[in-house]
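Observation: inputs received (chain + fe (ii) ion).
Thought: call the complex predictor directly.
Action: predict_structure
Action Input:
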Amino acid sequence: MTEWNSELELGYPKIDNHHRIFLKTINKFLQKLNQGVDLKVDLETLLYFLTDYVETHFIEEEQILKKINYFNYSKHKQAHQRLKENLGKLKRKYWELVQDSSDLFLIKLFITNLKEDLINKLVAHMKEEDSDIIIKVEEAL
Ligand SMILES: [Fe+2]
Ligand SMILES: [Fe+2]
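Observation:
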């Protein structure tokens, strides 16, 4: 689990707030999922949160990147697009296979997929690709 720390701060309050809330919420959900109570309720709430995060955060971040003429804009946008697609696939999988199932193995397998195919990738994107924006923000000021 990655906790928020000052190294992740970009100096763009809107973006930093999104990232901070993202990590806090994800960590809370991962803890709840580990406890294993109401797995499906927690999973569904998490999927809604991720949908909202990916929709609103990526758009706002892309607007800022555009505003500062970020040289890697299209590559960054593509990375967002890939993450959105991963989320789309996971959501389809959940509603088609997991939601109606009482197979605990299947539910746990889905949680592992969700972590590997999305959550870890979102965190890695924030740590690696988003943190590259900081230099550009400073240069633009
Ligand atoms: Fe971001
Ligand atoms: Fe990003």
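Thought: report the result.
Final Answer: Helices lie at 13-35, 39-67, 73-98, 104-129, 133-140. The domain at 9-140 is CATH 1.20.120.50 (Four Helix Bundle (Hemerythrin (Met), subunit A)).
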